[in-house]
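Hypothesis: this fold can be encoded by more than one sequence.
Test: take the structure tokens below, design a sequence, compare later.
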């Protein structure tokens, strides 16, 4: 068991409603704090998870309040926190999104479109497993976005 966290694995069940984002952020912040991250690190992790969940709710679940997804948090040894977002929406691999061209965005006065970029900048590792290749034996029909943040 991790010496930095008193939890082994925790799961939050959320619906496809943007009002859930506050509850998700609080859950992630509490677990990151419990694991030993500094306040700036806690807020960065929560921001990355918020971006991922917001994209899921809006673009995959289309704000369907009846649909559920899961946010799983567990320590990996003593040095990393693993956050997995599991959903049964349309598969979308955020790793296929190219990095934004900031000059082009500014010239076009565009808004949004930085969520995946933020996730990549904040997290130490980002992996995506669509439902058909999910390694989860107990939920093979779920897409899985795996985010890892090292403590040091």
């Amino acid at each position: 068991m991790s010496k930095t966290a008193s939890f082994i694995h925790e799961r939050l069940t959320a619906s496809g409603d943007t009002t859930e984002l506050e509850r998700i952020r609080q859950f992630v912040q509490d677990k990151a704090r419990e694991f030993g991250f500094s306040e700036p690190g806690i807020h960065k992790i929560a921001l990355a998870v918020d971006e991922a969940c917001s994209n899921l709710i809006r673009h995959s679940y289309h704000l369907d309040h009846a649909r559920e997804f899961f946010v799983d948090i567990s320590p990996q040894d003593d040095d990393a926190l693993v956050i997995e977002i599991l959903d049964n929406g349309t598969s979308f691999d955020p790793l296929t999104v190219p990095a934004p061209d900031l000059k082009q965005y500014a010239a076009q006065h565009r808004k949004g479109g930085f969520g995946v970029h933020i996730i990549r900048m904040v997290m130490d590792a980002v992996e995506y497993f669509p439902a058909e290749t999910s390694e989860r034996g107990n939920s093979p029909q779920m897409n899985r976005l795996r985010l890892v943040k090292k403590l040091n």
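The longest helix spans residues 39-60. Residues 10-150 form a domain with the Heat Shock Protein 90 fold (CATH 3.30.565.10).
Hypothesis status: open.
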